[in-house]
Structure formats: C-alpha cells, structure tokens
C-alpha cells in the first residue's frame, strides 16, 4: 500500500524504551517564514491604512455628522470654494437636524440615506411640537435655537418655507447626535429601557453608577491597561529565559492575590 504519511500504527516495544528529552532542542530555527512575512505585510498594510485615515479622514464626520454644505458639526470648518454657507464654525452645535423628519422614519436598512431638503447643525433638538412659522419664530426668540438655513432671519409667515424646516415639527430626541422624531425613537427607548431595567435589578441605578464611574476613572483605566500590556510583553519575553521562575512566581502571586482579595471582601 502507498505511504499515507503520519498514519495511525501500533507502537513497537523498542520505541517505548527510548529516552524522552524534556529539554528544548538545540539549534532551533524559525519555521513558517513565509507566513511570518505575510503576517508582517498585513500588519504593515493596516498601519498604512490607519495613517491614511488619520491624515485624510475625519472621524468627526461619523460621530457628529455633516450638514448640506459640507460643515462638520461641532468643529471649525474650512471654506469650500463656490459652496455657500460652508466654512462655518459649528463648535457647540453637536446635533444634526434634518428639515425633512421623514428621512429617518422611512429609512430602509441597507440603503443609503437620501434627502432633498437641507440639514443643519444645531445646539439641541426640538423639545416641543411646532405647527406654524409664528410658533417657530417665538421658539427661536425664546431659546435662541434656529431650525432654518444659517443666518436666515425669520419672518413668522409662509415666506419662511423656502429657508426653514417643514411644518409641523414634532418633538425630537438625539440619538448618536442626530435629531430623530420621538415616534422613531420609541423602539430605541423601549430597547434601552428594557436593558436598563435588567441592569437596575442587579443594583439600583446600576447604569448611572457605571457611567459615572467611567467618567471619573477613564484615565486611570487607560493607564492600567497600558501598564498591563507592558507587563505582559515583559513576561512573554522573560519566558524565553526563565520560564520556570515566571510560572511559579505567577502561580504564587495569583494564589496570594486570590486569598488576599477574598479576605478583604470578607
């Protein structure tokens, strides 16, 4: 029969009597050099893509959104030639408001969002229903919030239709820094509320406590992660030379830490 390479076969008696070496082989060499080179090429490609994204991209476009004239919300923008209303300083205006609120309510998953009416960066989303341009004018005068094209002065009549949002305006909420009608956000609120109730059953105000702790200690968390990464790399490097010492020391520290932590919590 032809040889099948590493096939299953009975072990002969003389093979059992051979001494088994427990020490590392001498004169070891690097294997799978081709795949190592491929791995390094992939890492290099990822680093290059990251460099291009940081140099030529703008993550704020994804985070805060872009209005109809190319202004990124919550950022000082550069003037685009021959584009009116571009180059505006939108710092502090972190919400993207769509003049056509049906844009998101009629959205189909997997398709691009398209709309014919403008979108502008605003400080906050509408917190009340507005049914006439007179109400919109009063709302702007009392709150300082405008839902019209930049620098447009409201008249409070039908002449505002070409430069302001369509009416009526329903109460909206901010989801991912986009103003979304309350009817659309109902499913989102239900899901968030359901998850929040489950977490709060573990501890009262569990979600708020977690968010508050993260806001207060995010720097310390980043520092500890960086220290942990550095210590891990050092240990991996030392494993090549003093593997036994590292293993026994790790077991001792882990055991002592477990006992000490249990005693402290007790």
UniProtKB/TrEMBL annotation:
<feature type="transmembrane region" description="Helical">
    <location>
        <begin position="221"/>
        <end position="239"/>
    </location>
</feature>
<feature type="transmembrane region" description="Helical">
    <location>
        <begin position="33"/>
        <end position="54"/>
    </location>
</feature>
<keyword id="KW-0472">Membrane</keyword>
<keyword id="KW-0812">Transmembrane</keyword>
<dbReference type="GO" id="GO:0022857">
    <property type="term" value="F:transmembrane transporter activity"/>
</dbReference>
<protein>
    <submittedName>
        <fullName>SLC44A1</fullName>
    </submittedName>
</protein>
<keyword id="KW-1133">Transmembrane helix</keyword>
<dbReference type="InterPro" id="IPR007603">
    <property type="entry name" value="Choline_transptr-like"/>
</dbReference>
<comment type="similarity">
    <text>Belongs to the CTL (choline transporter-like) family.</text>
</comment>
<dbReference type="GO" id="GO:0016020">
    <property type="term" value="C:membrane"/>
</dbReference>
<feature type="transmembrane region" description="Helical">
    <location>
        <begin position="245"/>
        <end position="265"/>
    </location>
</feature>
């Amino acid at each position: 029969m032809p040889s099948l390479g590493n096939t299953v076969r009975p072990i002969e008696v003389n093979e059992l009597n051979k001494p088994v070496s427990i020490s590392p082989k001498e004169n070891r060499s690097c294997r799978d050099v081709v795949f190592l080179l491929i791995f390094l090429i992939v890492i290099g490609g990822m680093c290059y893509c990251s460099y291009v994204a940081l140099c030529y991209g703008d993550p704020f476009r994804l985070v805060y959104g872009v209005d109809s004239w190319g202004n990124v919300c919550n950022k000082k923008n550069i003037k685009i030639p021959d584009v009116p209303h571009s180059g505006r300083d939108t710092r502090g205006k972190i919400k993207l408001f769509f003049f056509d609120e049906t844009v998101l309510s009629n959205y189909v998953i997997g398709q691009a969002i398209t709309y014919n009416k403008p979108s502008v960066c605003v400080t906050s989303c509408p917190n009340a229903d507005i049914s006439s341009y007179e109400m919109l004018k009063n709302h702007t005068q009392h709150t300082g919030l405008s839902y019209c094209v930049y620098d447009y002065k409201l008249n409070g009549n039908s002449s505002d239709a070409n430069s302001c949002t369509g009416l009526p305006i329903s109460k909206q909420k901010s989801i991912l820094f986009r103003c979304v009608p309350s009817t659309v956000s109902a499913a989102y609120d239900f899901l968030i509320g359901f998850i929040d109730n489950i977490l709060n059953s573990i501890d009262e105000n569990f979600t708020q406590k977690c968010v508050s702790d993260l806001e207060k200690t995010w720097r310390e968390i980043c520092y500890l992660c960086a220290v942990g990464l550095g210590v891990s790399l050092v240990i991996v490097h030392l494993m090549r030379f003093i593997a036994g010492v590292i293993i026994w020391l790790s077991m001792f520290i882990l055991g002592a830490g477990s006992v000490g932590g249990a005693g402290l919590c007790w």
